[in-house]
Each structure stands twice: as C-alpha cells, then as structure tokens.
Amino acid sequence: MSLSTSNSKTVSTDSTSEIRSIYRAISIGLLLLLGYHVLVKQRVVPATSGINQAQSNVIKAQKYVYENPSPKLILVGSSLTATIKPKDIGSHVINLGMAGGSSQTGLEIVKKEKLKSAILLVEINETIERKLDQQLLDSIYEPVSHFSQLHFPMLRQEYKPVDVLVQAVKNRLKSAKKEEKNEPPAQAENFNPKLREKVLAQQISAKMQPLSQSERQTLKSAAKSIKTQIAELQKQGLRIILYDLPGEKQVKNTIEEKQIQQIMREEFPADTYEWLPAPAFKNWVTSDGSHLVSSDAQAYAVFLRDKLLKTPFSVSRNPGTTQLE
Amino acid sequence: MLFNSSVFIIFVTVTFFIYYIPQFQKIQVPVLIAASFIFYGWSSPALLILLLISILINGITSYKVANASQNRERFFWALSGVVANLSILALFKYGALLTNLSLKIFNASTTPEDGLISVLLHLPLPIGISFYTFEGISLVVDVFRHQNLVAAGTSLPTRSFVNTNLKNHLVNTSFFLAFFPQILSGPIVRANDFYDQVKPKFIQSIPWPIVFRSLVYGYFLKMVVADNLKDYTFWINYPYYQGLGTLTNLVLLFGYSMQIFADFAGYSLIAIGLGAAFGYTLPENFNFPYISRSLSEFWRRWHISLSTWLRDYLYIPLGGNRKGEVRTYINLMVVMTLGGLWHGAAWSYAVWGIFHGIGLALERFFFGRLKSIKKSEDELPAWKKFAIDSLQVLSVFCFVSLGWLLFKLPRFDQAMDFLVTLSRNIWIKPDFNHILPVFIFSLPVILYHLPHFPTLQTFQAQSLNPIKRRRWRLLEDVLMGIMLALLILNKGSANEFIYFQF
User: Tell me: the pLDDT tens digits for A165-216?
Assistant: First the structure.
C-alpha cells in the first residue's frame, strides 16, 4: 500500500485506468460535497461556535453578515467584550467582540452591512491599538467567498466538518460527566486560581512602567482611525456609545493603565462622544488581570441590559468606567 | 503570491494555456521564465534585481568553467562562482547577525547607527535566496566536476549541459534558477538533473496521475492539515504556553511536528505537481520521515534535496567518513551546524544543527558498537520486531520534535523556558480544546505514514494480487475524493509556508 506521490516512477500517460481513477476521485468528492450541502440545509448537521478563538471570531462575523439579524444592540471590541454573552443582556443583541482583535474590525463589519438604527457599544481602551483584521474581512467580503458562503452555508466556518466532529465529542464527554456525577454542574469559572495569581502579578508589574512615546503615538493614531469609523457610522444613523469594561482594581490603578485612560479621555472627550457610565462599585474579578470571570461577565451583562435595554438611557457626562480609588 | 491564493490559480491556468499553444512551442522556456519572474516579483519587484544578479553570476561563471582550457583557469572561475554565491547569501541572510557579532566583539556602540551599519542591520531577507543560491552552487560545481572528468580523459557519465552559446546558456540558467514552482522553497534541484530536461513539451505527454495526486496531497497537507494546526500550535508561542499544562504543551509540540511536515511536504508536492504539469520532473523531497528508526534514516527521508546537497557538496568534500572516526564526527558536526544556519541567521538554528549533529554522532558511535553484538532482526519474532521498531520510531520522533521547538521559539531562552514549563505545569489539567483538534488534524499525517511503518511495509500495493490491487486503488480514489471535499469544506485560514522564512 503506497500513498506516496512519486514522479520518478514510469507512468503510461495513456493508461485509461489511471485517468478513470482521477475522474472517480473527483466524482466522489463532488458527491460528498452535495451530500454535505443537503445535510446542512436540512439542519441535520448542527452549527458550531468554533473550536478556537480565530474561528469564533469568523463565526460571529459570518452569522451577523449572512443571517440578517435585526439587532437593537451591537457590542464591538476585543476579547474583553467577547466574554459577555449576548443572551445575558437580552434578545436582539449581537456581540462582535473579537478575541485577539479590537473594535476596529467590528466597526468595519457594521459599516459594511449599512445598518440604519441600533445602539452600537464600542470598547475603548488599550486594545484599540490592534490592527483591523483584514484577513477576516477578506474571507467574508471577497466576492467569490461572499457569494459562495451566502448560497452554500456548508462553506461557512460554523459547519466545518472537523469542528462539528470535535463539538460532538465534547458534548458527549460533557454529558457522560454529568451522568457520572448525576447532578447538574455548577457554573464553572473560566480560570485557574493558581495561575491567576501568577499572571495577575506579572500583569501588574508590567504595567508599572509609563507608556513610551511611540506607544502613546500608536494609541493616538489608532484613536484617529476609530473616530473616522465612528463618524461614518453616525452618518448611517447609529447611536454610538463608548465604554470600557471594569477590571481588577490593582490593574486599573497601575501607571500605564491610568495613562491609557487619560489618553482615551483626551481622544474621545465626553462633550463630543457618548460614554457609558461606570457600573455600581464592586470588586470585579478577572481570570488573568484583564478578562472578567464568567460570573462577573454575567453581572456586567445584566448591568448593560438594565442600562441600555430596560430604561431609556440618558447621556452621562462622566466618561469611562474607571474605578480609581 | 501564495500557492493557495486565488491569484495564483489564475496565474497558473493562464501560464499553462499559453505554454501549450502549439504556435508557442519554440518559446516555451521564455514563457516560463517570464511567468517565473512575474511570480517571484509579484509582491516585491525589487527582489528581481538580486535574482538577475544571481543568474548572471552563475551563468557566466559556469560558462567560463565549461570553456576554460586550463585547470587553473577552470578552478579560478569555479571558485569565483562559489564565493560570489556564498557572499550574496552571507550579505543578505547573515549580514545583520555578523554585524551584531562584530559590534559585540569590538565593543562598538550601535546607537546612533552609522550609515553602513544601519544598512547591514536592516537588509531585507529575499525570499527563496537560500534555495536558488544552493542551486547556483550546484550548477558551478557540477560543471567543474564534469570538466575535470573530461580533462582527466575519463569516460563521461553525461555530456556537458552547458550550451555552447553564452546567450542560450544564460536563458537556460535563468529558467533553472527561477522556475516558479521551486524558487521559493525548493526542492533544491541539481543542474545535472534539470538542464537535460529542457526540450519542447507536449500536452499529451503530461503525466496527469502524478499532477493530480501531487496537487491533491500537497494542497490537502498544506491547507487542511498545516493551516488548521497553526491555530493551535500558536499557543506554543511565548508567553501563552506558560498557562498550559504539561500534556497540552507536549501535544501542541507534537502537533507542530505534524504541522511543519504537512506545510513543507505539502509545498514540495505542489511544486512537484506543478513541475510535472509543465513537463519537468522535480526531485522528491520527503519520503515518510516520521517512520525513521534512526536519525541518519530521518535525514535520508526529510528535506532530501537539502540533505543530499549537503552530503555531495560539503560532507564528502570534507572527507566524509573516509578519514577516520574522529574526523567523521567532526564532519558530521560541521555539516549539521552549517545546515542549521542555512535555515536562518539566528544562533538557535545553529544550536538546532548542533543538536542533530550530536544525535547523529552518538547514534553512529553506539550503533556501530551494537551492530556486532546485535542478534539479526530476521531471527526475532514478529511482535518483538514490531515493538522494537515502534520504540525506535517513537524515540526518533520525540528527538526531532524537541528540535523543532527551536524553530517555533527561535529565542533560546524561551525554548528553555518552555522545557522548564513542562516540568512545572504538571498540576494543570489537560486542555481538550487544544488536544482533540490537534489529534484530529494530525491524523492524516499519521495515516499517511502508517502503511510505510517498517513492520507493515510488506503490505504494499505492488505486492498485492490484481483483485486486491484494484480494491486498493478504489480505496485510494475514495480517500482522494474525501481529501478533495475537505479541501473545500475544511481548509484553514491562508498562511505563508513555514519554509519561506528560510
């Protein structure tokens, strides 16, 4: 049995069986594609939420672009925003928080979709320095990709066969565990306590250094790009509200963090931009110095729901959500 | 222009149809040279200048070597060609490294950077330079060796492939060095093997089975295996691995082994398939390296075109294993260290080479002594033979995977920190969100190697009866069909080939 591909073997190019073999492989491939397309269309194949962060980002974007939702509230930002579950806020909420990315990518997607009315919550903090994810945008808006993914859902990230398989195995393992324990598991927190302390200490000591001139410049030029995006979206009729997520008190009080907040307030002044007020004071806990633990992400989602969807939200003149003490 | 980009597909299709137009048969080579220049200069046209300089140097020096009447003159031109090639490589690839080293030795200040120092520290690395420079050296040396045989009156193995007309020879040399399927990452082609193939090609002579199989396997390994694995092996980067458990980090490291194989073997297969589509045979570059039972076997199976190049143009000229045991070990170390540095201008690559050199030397030392006392393998029962084979294959794979860590973490301190983390994070639970996908995407590579596993090698398609062979062919067609479907359904996000950085 040989699976090697060697061009040193003598090949009779007129061999019909060899050529037939190629046709057979192509036919089998096409049949498999057709079968998978039918299974996806009939919803036999379940959609996944991605098995790594890059995939989750793509799936979020594709769902928003191809499923024509009519959102009342859209969140754009980084992985800090991505920790918030839209269903914890309410219905018609979309979270375009991109792990490893920034608000710029989400803003660009919303801009391209020409949404006319909604509240757009934009995360503004040091993550804005991250560049636009052009590869993600190309994978959706490149004409051939866009057309094929629009008409053949099987080509979307959420239906990738390996993702479906991994998701199925994980679900199986989860249900087996549940049966073993014979009880519903408690809300699992997304962090490891031992590791958390170590990472938190690292993060605090790293942020004790003041920003360099080039870091300041990077933040300012990123802010400039975001302001351009915001201006265009406001023209479309969207209500833009800026916000920063709460976090660990020790981290928020570091030199670097304070300087970043200062720059953000200068770049996005409260008399020009609408800022979300800070939630009531509480000791917010993160898994790594930045990302809220599950329970706190849920608490913050409830705060957003109360602030933005339950009651008419009046503009606050106190910018930011800092928790300085 | 990436092999897995839509622009490239259009480029190849257009080139293919122009190439095979009957009226263009006389200018097939110029058509491919033009296409190769477009391909190479696509993202950075300035790089073409360096390629053209390399073509001129190698074309002229090899022509001079071929036409020199005296030994001394021949040697002078050959030496000039080799030195010029190595100088270009040293300047662009090692300029920054050597400048930094010199500044450290002479304790010179680097700030503010002077004009020349600044230029040397910031020289760009032209893509593919390591590959086409080695091909250039092979051209000059092969011509020199051939002419020496002629001068010595030895019966010739082949006729000289240098065209008597300088212009024609330069055209052939342009084609040899710039041929687009292999210019960026090999396989490193030998002049001896390539020049004789330059002749008119016909569409009816295309070996379609080779083209089809090479392209399907190549694209599958690259786009489905390597491009998906990269999303998980990303977590081996500093500092992310520090938060992962020992088992997870080990699985990710093995995943990187699979990724680097799938990435590079995938590239080589695509190159072979494309070469065959235009009527040219490129050498095999991989021969199931992860079933090797020894390091020396691994180097006969991994990046074959580089290891044979190093053997023929460096190891054997140094004396190989003909000058005693100690000298053999020294030669091994020198070749492997330089082979390591060929990959990049960083000390970690040299360390990687030394690591493999030490491995090869130790293996040679112990295996040489064990051979005399070892029981013949044929006398062992099958299960014992299988167990020994498995243990050897696993040992070599683990050794090689440990070496790849220096490719993934080129900073030596980070590589060491990764190893410390392995011993420190035993208490962290395995993360199946990483482990499971890595295993699934590694499976094709494992299955690809499995039929060639030493003990299973008897089960070969050639040794089957016609009925079983037909069944095997059908199974292979089904596998190809599945691969084609997965290429469309499950390709990862496009990513550059790992070996582009070398």
Answer: 999 998 888 887 766 655 444 444 555 676 778 788 888 888 898 999 999 9
Residues near A59 by beta carbon (within 8 Å), at least 6 away in sequence: A48, A49, A50, A156, A157, A158
Q: What is the β-pairing status of strands A239-243 and A93-97?
A: unpaired
Q: At what angle do helices B347-373 and B325-343 cross, to 10 degrees?
A: 150
**Active-site position among B343, B356, B449, B452:** B343
User: Is the backbone peptide bond immediately before B200 cis, with ω within 30 degrees of 0?
Assistant: no
pTM: 0.88
Residue A321 has pLDDT above 50, yes or no: no
Burial B3-26, CB ≥16 within 10 A → b, else e: bbeeebeebbeebeeebbeeeeee
Contact A188, A94 (CB under 8 A): no
Q: Which of B399, B375, B400 is nearest to B388 (CA)?
A: B375
| Chain A residue with minimum CA distance to B472 | A1
- Report d(CA B442, CA B262) in Å as an integer: 9
Active site residue B356: no
The residue among B105, B452, B87 whose CA lies nearest residue B297 is B452
Q: What is the rounded CA–CA span in Å between residue A3 and residue B460? A: 10
The beta-carbon neighbor of B281 closest among A7, A139, A161 is: A7
Of A123, A92, A93, A91, the closest CA to residue A107 belongs to A123
Pair B140, B61: CB distance under 8 Å = yes
Pairing relationship of beta strands A119-123 and A239-243 according to DSSP bridges: parallel
Number of continuous H segments (helices) and E segments (strands) in chain A: 13, 4
Structure-derived torsion over alpha carbons of residues A253, A259, A262, A268, reported in degrees to the nearest 10: -120
Per residue in B256-309, pLDDT tens?
A: 999 999 999 999 999 999 999 999 999 999 999 999 999 999 999 999 999 999
Count Cα neighbours of B163 within 13 Å in the Cβ-side half-sphere.
15
Of B269, B287, B484, which is closest to A29 when you measure between CB atoms? B484
The confidence score (pLDDT) of residue B457 equals 63
CA angle B146, B150, B152 (to 5 degrees): 115
How close A220 gets to chain B, by Cα (Å)?
27
Round to whole Å and give the CA distance between B425 and B420. Answer: 9
Distances (CA, A) of B2 to A217, A305, B36, B184: 34, 46, 13, 10
Query: Contact A131/A253 with Cβ under 8 angstroms?
Result: no
Name the residue in chain A with its Cα closest to that of B274: A7
Nearest to A49 by CA among A156, A134, A175: A156
Range in A251-255, B144-148, B157-161 with the lowest mean pLDDT: B157-161
What single-letter DSSP state applies at residue A308? I
CA distance to partner chain A, nearest, from residue B411 (Å):
20
Nearest Cα residue to B202 out of B422, B28, B433: B28
Q: Distance of alpha carbon B464 from its chain centroid, rounded?
A: 33
Give the DSSP letter string of A12-73: -TT-HHHHHHHHHHHHHHHHHHHHHHHHHHTT-SPP---SSHHHHHHHHHHHHHHS----SE
Smallest Cα distance from B347 to chain A, Å: 28
Tokens at A197, concatenated: 């302390």
- Name, in order, each residue with C-beta under 8 angstroms of A145's C-beta and a sequence gap of 6 or more: A138, A139
* Chain A positions in Cβ-Cβ contact with residue B277 (cut-off 8 Å): none
Contacts of B290 (CB under 8 A, 6+ apart): B257, B261, B393, B397, B400, B445, B449
Sheet containing A119-123: order of strands: A93-97, A73-77, A119-123, A239-243
Q: Could you say which residues from 193 to 212 on chain B have a Cβ atom under 8 Å away from some Cβ of chain A?
A: 204-210, 212
